[in-house]
Amino acid sequence: MSEETTNKQEMPEQLSDILLVLDKEKMKIQAVKSIDENGKMETVEPTKKNQNQFMRVDKSGDFFSNFFSNFFSQLKNPTNFTFFKVPAPVAAEKAEELQKHVYKPTPQGEKVLKEHEVKAELQPDKKQENQNNMATAQTTTETSEYRYKPEQIDWDTMKNLGLSKEYLEKRNLLDPLLRGYKTNELLPIGINLGSSILRTDARLSLQQAEDGNVIVAIHGIKREPNLHFEFFGHKFTDEDKKNLLETGNMGRVVNLVNSKTGELMPSIISIDRLTNDVIALRTEFIKIPDEIKGVKLNDEQKQTLMEGKPLYLEGMISSKGTEFSATVQFNADKRYVEFLFDRSNNNQQAQTNQQNTQLSNQQSQPQEAPRTFRGKELDDEQYNKFKAGQTIYVELKDKKDQPYKGYITFDKDSGKTNFEFPGQYKARVEPAETHKTQTAVNSEGKTNEATKNVQEPLKSGQQRPKNEKQQEQQDNKPEKSKGRKM
């Protein structure tokens, strides 16, 4: 595999065509949007405003022929319509031109209509097969057709890279390849250079060479995005570079130049965050949803995203049911609207880490105990005990000026004041005191004031004399003599 294949700039998107249709009854040109399972065709006005809803088809001869044959065979009452194929970038202008020739027929206009007209050529024995394949052949803005077939892949080349069909299927990576996308994750590959083997991680994609063969393209990891040279005729400004490095998206539409045809291609540009490749996507392939996480987008918001700009949305609902806000933006590499939460370059990340470290250090310093708690100012005796870490009893008032009581303790490590109601405090302290007393009795031979004179062994948890005899011992009363009188 040549170095040119692996390192060349990638075209924004394979060129596509738009399918226009003339309803012979209404004599009106429309753009095809989709066709349902019952053979009913859905159309939209062929305006630039609706261009993201147009059905797009691969302009490659074989792909288009197969697609249109399938489409035509599935269509209900196909003789009612005449179809035209026009380039996607000029679809709206061509539709307007064709409509004029429909309204005012002329020999020249008839020639133009014939030039763009598409006719289905179905073989009788292929009709049923085409109908069966309709589900996978149809292309709409929501579903992409398979651009390649598994048998077109050079599996010997894949094997030399250390990959197999079974491996790709198991990791769900074959499907995006066949649709013309890059793998959505890095793959470990090995390239045999004869005297040595190069091992690296890379994304893969399939591309069609000029001779029609399908080749495997390797997208290796670059140290940084190459923004110093022109990209399909576009020279990156300082603002472009800043946006791409910080968010991964350039944030505007620019006209790229097709190096082969000279055609201008309105596109957005993003960075492949896995490989640092510069990726472009033609605006005609941008599909903006009507709703994002429960927030319905208005026309102005959709237009903002269509132009590649960031959009801040409030009131979105997460999968856990919590409300959140975030900035969203269309990503050319991922081909969908993404959330921008923590997108930053290395310098910003280092600065953020430094700020977090400083904050952490500040929090780890000894904190001074507050003199006031919930509006209650502590007197000197209370405050001295409180700042020393002792628990003190306080009487407070709530927001309705109703009194309540409790215990507060200052935590020097966290700098926080812990509050407990009397019931909570007693539930925590009394068992601990009981355990402490019993440990002293059983292990250290000690006792408490209530039982210090009791001569008999105490029971577990005993805090006071259990009977009259032990009470007399505790009170230091002399035990009654059992001897006889002399």
From TrEMBL:
Polar residues composition-biased segments: 437-464
Domain DUF4099: 148-229
Biased composition (Low complexity): 349-367
Residue ranges annotated for the DUF3945 domain, each copy included: 289-342, 374-421
Composition bias, Basic and acidic residues: 465-486
InterPro entries given in the database record: DUF3945 (IPR025222), DUF4099 (IPR025343)
Pfam families to which the protein is assigned, alphabetical: DUF3945 (PF13101), DUF4099 (PF13351)
Region (Disordered): 349-381, 430-486
Protein name: DUF3945 domain-containing protein
